């Protein structure tokens, strides 16, 4: 082990062992390189990487508030242009920061055609504050503010479809990705930062602490999400879906049974109706995006 | 140690935090089985695995949290998680 | 060069001469004339800047924060509801020590909704770590922007600044203003030299979180910076005076105070009316003077003591109130004069744009002489049954 650190996302950060967000940060900077400015929102990634006086970021990095990273990025992009500087600007935020409280700023930045890339690490809840429900929490997931109980099956709403919303803003490149497919994710990051205009990537980041599974299973869980159709990896260019990851689909149960946040659907009794509803969501995704591998006769 | 104006920091300070102390399980790399695919390096959330002179992966135990992702994802089963004797 | 200019346009021209690289602002009455004028200036290539038409005031100040962090001089303007929406970002900018300069076209806070002038908006930010300047007329509103940038960007200060001037009374009124030339502005205000910035050649992380082991010391350092600003304002203000003939070295400005019995303390355009009233009162034999507070943050406590030690009573006029308590200036003047036996009487007036005339000032002086103070002046009793 030499003394020369080669990772732009450095060791010593305080993420949970097996953290998908930490993995995402590492992969993003591997793809983006050192000529990058990162604008982080408040959240897990920011908190575990920058407790004063420590920082794990080896690129210029700024954290302002929870909901304004897109607006701060807009200002940075304008300033760089004025100074003739070439750094690429990447805004990073969790799902809560992005689809909920940050909607105003991300919509404005995209509407203005700001030349930056927004990457949302989607761990499907407000994890940093203790696993509360966000607009990206999936149907029937139990969180502390949408807990399963005697008269509740957990979160009662489907995930907000922010990729579509931003495509409707005229974003030239919108993609979904997963830490389970790191090479694919890195390719998408590279494409996004080299596409002029506002680009968006939502990367699925299974959270061992928040979803209830062992840290070593982060990638396995991510793969199951895709294989069951509850997460779809795709790319959109100028609003049109160009590439979709196809799968030999598995029933949603194999994904749900692996996570404590869905345990109430199986214990003390199996909630067939609810599981069927989740299967419907997967089936609709399959139809909409064309993810099923159809073997030619 | 004077404060950095505006609460800032320069790169490198996180290295003072040796997260290896978090470990319960320790990954043991069996180079005989290793196919040098590089998967462990890619998936490590700490980025603390690097190649030695023979181009085999070696973790930095100062920072390895023992999460087990490398062992889980190794296609050659060349990494084993062993309970660490402290 | 003397020109008859609307306050907003004079400010827009001064800001142009300060050469901001990034402007991010959201329209709100009565600030709109400034941002419209600047948009036109940029559209006609008279200023080489990026003008970001943001989607809210919150985003305006956030964009300014980003641009300042990246190394640009920035500008924004707002008022009332807009400033309130920026509240979170204001603390962020000050805490991160970015030298943003923002015009506040003072307007009352809703509810009830009001587009008319008072000082509640900027006064409510007095804890935030932003410096605050209050202009008496169009000339001061213009000049204070150059001074604000110079002080804010000084590496011994590095605090953001509000330049406040009264909505409609200054912003929408025409007065003769002596505008600097670009050359003069450049000679006073050199290009922005950031203390540090977002730069791939020298990466820094901005905006870390501070545990209880560190937070208090960061706040202490900010407080120290605000106190250092006192001296830097005096220096920069004096320099302005030496170069252009209008001295801004004083955080306060006395008017006919030397032998005064009653001292009036006020901020902003009200001072113009007060000066005229004082002249009349003096002609009638009353010894009244004014101590204008031009810089509210940092608060000029020493100057208050120095100029008011000899008077028999102090009447503080506040176009703001901390509901259930008193006006902000009254409380701070009282605090500065604690220990002296001088009675300090507060008058809350002109809220929501209610007009103040010379006879109102005379009536207030009368009240002060009778020891009647700590009141809302000029209430319409018939509405209060």
Which secondary structure elements does this structure contain, and how are they paired or packed?
The complex is a heterotrimer of chains A (297), B (86) and C (385).
Chain A: H1 20-32, E1 36-40, H2 44-49, E2 61-63, H3 69-83, E3 88-94, H4 95-100, H5 103-111, E4 117-122, E5 148-149, E6 152-153, H6 162-168, E7 173-178, H7 182-193, E8 199-204, H8 208-211, H9 218-227, E9 234-237, E10 240-244, H10 253-256, H11 272-289
Parallel strand pairs in A: 1-2, 1-3, 3-4, 4-8, 7-8
Antiparallel strand pairs in A: 5-6, 7-9, 9-10
Helix pairs in contact in A: 1-7, 3-5
Chain B: E1 8-9, E2 25-29, H1 39-43, E3 49-51, E4 57-59, H2 69-73, E5 79-83
Antiparallel strand pairs in B: 2-5, 3-4
Chain C: E1 2-6, H1 7-17, E2 22-25, H2 32-43, E3 50-53, H3 57-69, E4 74-78, H4 80-85, H5 87-96, E5 101-106, H6 120-123, E6 131-134, H7 138-153, E7 161-166, E8 174-178, H8 182-188, E9 205-206, H9 215-244, E10 252-255, E11 262-266, H10 270-283, E12 288-293, E13 295-297, H11 301-308, E14 313-318, H12 328-336, E15 344-348, H13 358-369, E16 375-376
Parallel strand pairs in C: 2-3, 2-4, 4-5, 5-7, 6-7, 11-12, 11-14, 14-15, 15-16
Antiparallel strand pairs in C: 1-8, 6-13, 10-12
């Amino acid at each position: 082990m030499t003394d020369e650190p080669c990772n732009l996302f450095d060791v010593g950060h305080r993420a949970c062992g097996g953290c998908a967000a930490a993995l995402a940060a590492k992969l993003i900077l591997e793809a983006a390189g050192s000529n990058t400015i990162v604008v982080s929102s408040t959240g897990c990634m920011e908190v575990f990487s920058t407790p004063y006086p420590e920082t794990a970021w080896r690129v210029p990095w700024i954290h302002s508030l929870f909901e304004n990273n897109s607006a701060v990025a807009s200002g940075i992009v304008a300033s760089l242009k004025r100074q003739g500087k070439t750094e690429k600007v990447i805004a990073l935020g969790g799902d809560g920061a992005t689809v909920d409280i940050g909607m105003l700023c991300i919509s404005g930045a995209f509407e203005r055609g700001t030349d930056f890339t927004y990457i949302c690490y989607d761990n499907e809840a407000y994890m940093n504050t203790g696993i509360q429900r966000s607009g990206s929490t999936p149907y029937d997931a139990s969180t502390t503010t949408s807990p399963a109980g005697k008269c509740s099956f957990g979160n009662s709403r489907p995930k907000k479809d922010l990729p579509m919303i931003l495509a409707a803003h005229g974003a030239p490149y919108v993609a979904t990705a997963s830490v389970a497919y790191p090479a694919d994710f890195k390719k998408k990051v590279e494409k996004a930062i080299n596409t002029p205009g506002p680009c968006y990537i939502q990367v699925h980041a299974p959270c061992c602490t928040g979803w209830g599974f062992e840290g070593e299973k982060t990638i396995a869980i991510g793969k199951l999400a895709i294989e069951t159709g509850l997460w779809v990896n795709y790319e959109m260019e100028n609003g049109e879906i160009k590439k979709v990851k196809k799968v030999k689909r598995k029933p949603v149960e194999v994904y749900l049974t692996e996570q404590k946040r869905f345990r109430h659907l199986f214990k003390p009794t199996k909630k067939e109706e609810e599981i069927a509803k989740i299967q419907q969501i997967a089936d609709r995704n399959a139809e909409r995006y064309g993810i099923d591998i159809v073997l030619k006769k | 140690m004077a404060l950095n104006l505006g609460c800032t920091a320069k790169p490198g300070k996180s290295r003072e935090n040796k997260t290896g102390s978090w470990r319960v399980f320790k990954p043991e790399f069996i180079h005989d089985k290793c196919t040098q695919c590089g998967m462990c390096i890619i998936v490590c959330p700490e980025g603390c695995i690097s190649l030695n002179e023979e181009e085999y992966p070696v973790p930095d135990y100062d920072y390895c949290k023992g999460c087990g992702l490398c062992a889980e994802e190794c296609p050659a089963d060349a990494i084993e998680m062993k309970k660490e004797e402290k | 060069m003397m020109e008859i200019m609307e306050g907003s346009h004079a400010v827009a021209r001064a800001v142009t001469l300060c050469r901001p690289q990034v402007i991010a602002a959201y329209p709100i009455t009565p600030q709109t004339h400034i941002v419209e004028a600047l948009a036109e200036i940029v559209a006609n290539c008279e200023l080489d800047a990026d003008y970001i038409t943001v989607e809210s005031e919150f985003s305006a100040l956030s964009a300014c924060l980003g641009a300042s962090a990246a190394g640009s001089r920035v500008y924004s303007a707002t008022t009332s509801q807009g400033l309130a929406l920026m509240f979170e970002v204001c603390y962020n900018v000050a805490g991160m020590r970015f030298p943003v300069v923002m015009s506040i076209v003072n307007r009352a806070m809703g509810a009830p909704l009001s587009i008319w002038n008072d000082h509640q908006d900027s006064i409510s930010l007095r804890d935030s770590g932003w410096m605050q300047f209050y202009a008496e007329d169009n000339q001061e509103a213009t000049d204070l922007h150059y001074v604000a940038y110079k002080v804010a960007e000084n590496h011994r200060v590095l605090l953001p600044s509000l330049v406040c001037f009264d909505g409609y009374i200054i912003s929408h009124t025409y007065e003769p203003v002596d505008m600097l030339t670009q050359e003069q502005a450049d000679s006073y205000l050199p290009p922005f030299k950031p203390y540090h910035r977002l730069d791939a050649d020298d990466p820094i992380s901005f905006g870390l979180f501070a545990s209880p082991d560190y937070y208090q010391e960061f706040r202490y350092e900010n407080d120290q910076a605000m106190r250092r600003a006192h001296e830097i304002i005096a220096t920069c203000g004096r320099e302005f005076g030496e170069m252009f003939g209008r001295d801004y070295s004083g955080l306060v400005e006395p008017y006919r105070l030397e032998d005064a019995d009653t001292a009036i303390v006020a901020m902003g355009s009200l001072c113009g009316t007060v000066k005229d009233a004082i002249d009349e009162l003096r002609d009638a034999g009353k010894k009244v003077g004014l101590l204008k507070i031009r810089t509210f943050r940092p608060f000029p406590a020493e100057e208050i003591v120095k100029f008011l030690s000899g008077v028999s009573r102090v009447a503080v006029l506040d176009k703001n109130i901390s509901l259930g308590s008193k006006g902000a200036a009254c409380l701070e003047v009282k605090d500065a004069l604690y220990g002296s036996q001088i009675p300090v009487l507060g008058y809350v007036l002109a809220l929501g744009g209610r007009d103040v005339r010379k006879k109102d000032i005379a009536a207030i002086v009368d009240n002060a002489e009778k020891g009647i103070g700590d009141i809302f002046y000029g209430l319409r009793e018939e509405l209060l049954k």
